[in-house]
Amino acid sequence: MDEVEVVVAHSERATLRVGDMFLKVDADRGRLDTEVEAMTLAPVPTPEILWHKPPVLALAAVPGTALGRLGKPSTASPAAWAAAGAVIRKLHDAPLPSRLGRTGKSSEELAAELDGECEWLVANGVLPAELVTRNRRVAEAVLRPWTPAFTHGDLQIAHVFLDGDEITGIIDWSEAGRGDALFDLAVLTLGHEEHLGDVVAGYGGDVDLDVIRGWWSLRSLLAIRWLLGHGFDPFAPGCEVDVLRSRL
């Protein structure tokens, strides 16, 4: 019998791997429904859906290896990073997913959430006030009008798989919806700033790099409390706190 590997597990959801099958268990049925719908609509490589019986979704493993991991150097070539940018462009150019309920937060909502998290980080001694204040200023670049696109919503580097320089699949679509295209590019390159140029070259068109840097700061500031509360370490080398320090 194949061993059961726990890929990720916390109080909200868990992902298990058994052989070439992944089992996703989620307390929020809506997230699994979103994932199934997004993979059906997305014009990019996605995992094969084997079956869906809430609260469990079974997916076939995607061939290849992840583009990289947060906190670790990526061994993927510049061409592979550019290929990832090209695939993301194809997603963002697709028709808006009208059947998906998730829409990116407004600038006002983001600003309010950001202010609350910054206050919590400083008041609880999690981060120095200077570090938080500097990144709060950098994050303001995100707070501007934007045109909705079909976005993945959680395009971490570990969610993009490749074989050689070819993208074989993008996984974990539970946050997909109508969002800010530059958020996807920022999440992919979080902690891997050295590959931003390759991604943008593959993506094509004008990309506001200040907005991407703003998303690096904003996402990191907003994520730290959640990560600490769910057993993850944002202080690990190359992870969220180091991303914030790189803005100083």
From TrEMBL:
One of the record's GO molecular function terms: transferase activity
Name of a matching Pfam family: APH
Keyword Transferase annotated: yes
Swiss-Prot/TrEMBL keywords: Transferase
Organism: Streptomyces calidiresistens
Domain Aminoglycoside phosphotransferase: 38-203
Name of protein: Phosphotransferase
Sequence intervals crossing the membrane: none
Stored InterPro entries: AGP_Transferase, Aminoglycoside_PTrfase, Kinase-like_dom_sf
Domain of life, source organism: Bacteria
Keyword set includes Transferase: yes
